[in-house]
């Protein structure tokens, strides 16, 4: 049973694009976004999966919220999900690795001054914009 993959980045909901870009460009795993066969009970419009890992999280549109809030929520959720899937696929659950504290912890998704960024959870230092990893 296969379902159509959401192909081009432009077909992804706007709030999912930055985090999916960063994961697929810079992490050891790949996020795949698919339409569920039917609307599931949670109201998910899309399923967000990590290729090769079991399970998925649902993407539920939040039309009332500002784009930056939605982008933050989705980036935080997808990042948490990627961290759960990394060990299952044999990778350390440290992505994106904090450049200040290598091998210690991943950067966290933070909403800072109206921008969704990757920041060190210990020092608070902002290291990149979410969607801007890898150049
Ligand atoms: Zn750190």
Account of the 3D structure:
By secondary structure, the protein is of the alpha+beta class. The protein has one domain (9-129). It is built from two helices and six strands. The strands form two sheets. It has a three-stranded antiparallel sheet with strand order 1-2-3. A three-stranded antiparallel sheet has the order 4-5-6. Helix 1 packs parallel to helix 2. The longest helix is centred in the middle third of the chain and has 22 residues, at 67-88. The radius of gyration is 15 Å and the shape is globular. The termini are far apart. The structure holds zinc ion. Zinc ion binds at residues 98, 100-101, 105, 120, 122-123.
Protein traits:
135 residues; alpha+beta; three-stranded antiparallel beta sheet; globular; binds zinc ion
């Amino acid at each position: 049973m296969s379902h159509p993959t959401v192909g081009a980045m432009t077909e992804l909901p706007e709030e999912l694009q930055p985090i999916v870009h960063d994961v697929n460009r810079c992490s050891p795993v790949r996020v795949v976004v698919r339409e569920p066969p039917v609307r599931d009970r949670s109201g998910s419009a899309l399923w967000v999966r990590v290729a090769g890992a079991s399970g998925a999280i649902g993407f539920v549109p939040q039309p009332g919220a500002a784009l930056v809030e939605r982008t933050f929520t989705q980036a935080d959720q997808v990042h948490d999900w990627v961290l759960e899937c990394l060990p299952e696929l044999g990778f350390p659950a440290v992505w994106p690795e904090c450049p200040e504290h290598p091998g210690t912890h991943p950067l966290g998704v933070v909403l800072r001054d109206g921008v969704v960024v990757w920041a060190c959870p210990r020092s608070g230092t902002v290291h990149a914009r979410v969607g801007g990893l890898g150049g």
